[in-house]
Amino acid sequence: MQPRQQIRQQVRHARRQLSAEQQEHAAHAVMTRFMALPSVIASQHIALYLSFDGELDTAPLINACWQAGKSVYLPVVHPFSQGHLLFLHYTPTTPMQSNRYGIAEPKLDIRYLLPTHQLEVIATPLVAFDDRGQRLGMGGGYYDRTLALCAHPSATAVGLAHDCQHWGQLPTEQWDMPLPHILTPSHHWHWSATNSRPLS
């Protein structure tokens, strides 16, 4: 089995090779799948993220949530608790800044902070995913910690990815948090709590 960092390099390279037309098609296809999820339809507080390094473009998805009257929250790297994220309410007029990774995030303002356990849907970025719902991130563990801390009884985690990010079987660590849903342009991967195989 290939080392995690080697898989990251290969998949990120494949992702960056996608054309603007392919990116646009993928973004709208995943947006349609995401907005049709029953958990999204029933939710008000949805955590999303801004795309980076060839990730699936989340702008159409964010706009669709706004148009549906839902509140969107973006991650902010916690300034004091290493490896953790905060989630701030995001609107078209939210002041933004670049974090230590060069990713745009809202300027920290506790007036717009939502406790993680109040998030109802958490869309997660990923570098690769496999047939068991395991995700491979960038290696910082931010979303594994976020998902472990999210205590909302009906919270749903949804991975967003291009089809080229599918990997047969990923090497895992004990702290890795598998996802119940992963959406790609061509497929909705869904794993139940008792079934390790994709249901659709």
UniProtKB/TrEMBL annotation:
Cofactor entry: Mg(2+)
GO terms of molecular function: 5-formyltetrahydrofolate cyclo-ligase activity
Gene3D superfamilies according to UniProt: NagB/RpiA/CoA transferase-like
Superkingdom to which the source organism belongs: Bacteria
Signal peptide: none
EC id: 6.3.3.2
Protein name according to UniProt: 5-formyltetrahydrofolate cyclo-ligase
Entry similarity comment: Belongs to the 5-formyltetrahydrofolate cyclo-ligase family.
Matching SUPFAM superfamilies: NagB/RpiA/CoA transferase-like
Keywords: ATP-binding, Ligase, Magnesium, Metal-binding, Nucleotide-binding
PANTHER family for the chain: 5-FORMYLTETRAHYDROFOLATE CYCLO-LIGASE, ATPASE INHIBITOR/5-FORMYLTETRAHYDROFOLATE CYCLO-LIGASE
Reactions listed under catalytic activity: (6S)-5-formyl-5,6,7,8-tetrahydrofolate + ATP = (6R)-5,10-methenyltetrahydrofolate + ADP + phosphate
InterPro entries named among the record's database cross-references: FTHF_cligase (IPR002698), FTHF_cligase-like_sf (IPR024185), NagB/RpiA_transferase-like (IPR037171)
Organism for this UniProt entry: Salinivibrio costicola (Vibrio costicola)
